[in-house]
Amino acid sequence: MTVIVTGGAGFIGGNFIYYMLKNHPEDRVVCVDCLTYAGNLSTLKEAMEHSNFRFCKINICDREAVYGLFEEEHPDVVINFAAESHVDRSIENPEVFLQTNILGTAVMMDACRKYGIRRYHQVSTDEVYGDLPLDRPDLFFTEETPIHTSSPYSSSKAGADLLVLAYHRTYGLPVTISRCSNNYGPYHFPEKLIPLMIANALADKPLPVYGEGLNVRDWLYVEDHCRAIDLIVRKGRVGEVYNVGGHNEMRNIDIVKLICKEFGKPESLITHVTDRKGHDMRYAINPTKIYNELGWLPETKFADGIKKTIRWYLENREWWENIINGEYQNYYERMYGNR
Ligand code: NAD
Ligand code: DAU
Questions:
Q1: For residue 9, how far is the Cα from the chain centroid?
Q2: Is the pLDDT of residue 333 over 90?
Q3: Short-list 322, 309, 299, CA closest to 184
Q4: Residue 319 counted as domain residue
Q5: Does residue 126 fall inside a structural domain?
Q6: Is 41 helix (H, G, I), strand (E, B) or coil?
Q7: What is the domain-level CATH number for residue 173?
Q8: What is the total count of domains within the chain?
Q9: Does residue 202 lie in a domain region?
């Protein structure tokens, strides 16, 4: 079958493309990505050598270009990873989040309706559920938890989710949605917590922890997320939402201390900076549904995943050094300069 993967030059989409080429070499994979600051063609260097892979530089908001591609490729499946994904940037400038995350999703689904499709899958996030209090460790996000967003980013993702479910009910579009917790692993853009701390620790630069660093995230190795999406697309029930996460809750401060330890760097590098506005306290996924229906469980333990991730960043310095030496420096100065 032919699978369109949008946002494939980004972190999770890129990992998903390699997952597909390895596990389903018979399928044709067409990557649609407009290469924003977060898209990196060097991520797809090895994929470009596969005869079953095609890269198309297209913005998912560009209806004409998207329809043109559907006419050429007749895709069986569309998996929509493309998004503006960084909460801090959404607080600085929400508009592009609404455009790509909501309107772009609508364009992709309109193309699916017009040309016909076996499955449209929306890659969503646990952030649509808002946050959980730190003093209620018994609470977890289930698929029934009400949508209750905090940031422009999560609101745009929630808007897209509602639209996806509406296209299913109104037009009968065969959709599924996955809502995953925080991913980590190779090709993670260095504006996000784990790669940012790795890059700064290696350069003996301050490690900027927002507030006290007591916020909790539920970390999942990216390959486990890719496997979950693949299972949902092939075996998940149409019209359903599946939460994806692996009961691996950690406080930010503990992650940063662990990275210091791995590199033998002093904890005195840790600098507490002004907190993120509207900062979500705790995310925690209950993955019972995907386990019961599809048998999915995470395979990579955090202790192994973080070691693999650190090794990847050490062995692929060129990939991230090219990023942090470019335009990204202006962002870093803007975001952390006076914090
Ligand atoms: P990312 O920022 O690393 O990559 C996003 C990719 O989308 C980039 O390659 C970018 O160029 C592309 N893109 C952005 N706007 C586009 C547009 N208008 N048209 C075409 N391409 C466009 O993001 P990520 O961390 O890989 O996240 C991928 C998806 O997974 C997002 O939908 C995000 O909401 C979701 N998600 C992420 C996490 C996480 O921990 N990173 C967890 C759960 C869900
Ligand atoms: O939960 C899934 C979400 O995880 C995805 O939907 C988002 O696309 C993804 O970016 C991620 O969102 P977070 O806001 O949780 O990730 P981030 O890496 O930006 O931050 C993780 C935590 O670390 C958060 O509590 C903020 C904190 N932080 C982050 C940065 C960049 C710091 O303390 N210092 C930092 O410099």
A1: 12
A2: no
A3: 309
A4: no
A5: yes
A6: helix
A7: 3.40.50.720
A8: 1
A9: no
Asked, for residue 152, whether it belongs to a domain, the answer is yes
Ligand 2 pocket, residue 193 CB under 6 Å? yes
- Residues 6+ away with beta carbon under 8 Å from 28: 1, 2, 3, 52, 53, 54, 73
**pTM for the whole thing?**
0.98
C-alpha 153 to ligand 1 mean position (Å): 11
Residue 235 neighbours by CB distance under 10 Å? 12
Give yes or no for residue 47 having a pLDDT over 90.
Answer: yes
333 is catalytic: no
Structural domain containing residue 232? 2-187+220-247+282-299
Per-residue pLDDT averaged across 169-180, rounded?
Answer: 98
Q: What is the amino acid identity at position 150?
A: S
CA of 159 to the centre of ligand 2 (A): 20
- As given in the structure block, the two tokens for residue 293 are 């229906």
Closest by Cα among 139, 144, 85, 84 to 282: 139
Which residue has 């791995």 as its token pair?
A: 262
The string of pLDDT tens digits covering residues 216-242 is: 999 999 999 999 999 999 999 999 999
